[in-house]
Amino acid sequence: MGYTYDDQNIFAKILRGEIPNNTVLETEHSLAFRDLYPQAPTHVLVIPKGSYVSYDHFAAEATDAEIVDYVRAVGEVCRLEGVDLTTGDGYRLISNAGANGVQEVPHLHVHILGARHMGRMVAKAD
Ligand code: DGP
Fold it and tell me: From CA 126, how far away is CA 121, in angstroms rounded?
C-alpha cells in the first residue's frame, strides 16, 4: 500500500496559483506562507512543492534535494520572522498527520509558531 495524495486539497490549489496566499518565502522546492487562522503572532506554514501528504510520506519518497531545501526553508523562515535562536526567543514546530494527528489539509506542512510563549506542548484531547 502506498500513499494517497488528493490534488484538490487547498494547499495544492495554492501551489497551482488557484487561490492567493501571503508568501513569506519561496524556494526551488518549498513555499512558506502565513496561516489564514493564526494561533500566534508568528504563524507560518511551510510546505514542499511536491505532492506529499505527510512528513512520513516526504521522508520516504522526496529527493535529497527536496528534503534539504525544505529543512533549510523552515530555518530561514524562523530567521525571517525573528524567532530563531540567534536573535529571537524561540518557536514551536508542529506537523499534524492523519486522523490522530488531526490534520485538516492533506498536504505536508510544518507550522512555525512563535513571538509569544507557546505554553504546554500538548493539550488534553477533546
Ligand atoms: P492542520 O490541522 O495541521 O492540517 O492545519 C491546517 C492549517 O491550514 C490551519 O492552521 C488553517 C490553515 N489554512 C486552511 N485553509 C487555508 C488557506 O486557504 N490559506 C491559508 N494560508 N491557510 C489555510
Answer: 15
| pLDDT exceeds cutoff 70 at 94 | yes
Q: Average the pLDDT over 56-66 and give the result.
A: 98
33 lines ligand 1 (CB under 6 A): yes
Catalytic residue among 107, 109, 111, 117: 109
In this prediction the pTM is: 0.97
Residue 45 CA to ligand 1 center (angstroms) comes to 8
Residue with cell 499534524: 96
Spacing of C-alpha 88 from chain mean position: 20
Ligand 1 close to Cβ of residue 54 (< 6 A): no
Looking at residue 126, what is its pLDDT?
65
Q: Which three cell numbers stand for residue 93?
A: 514546530
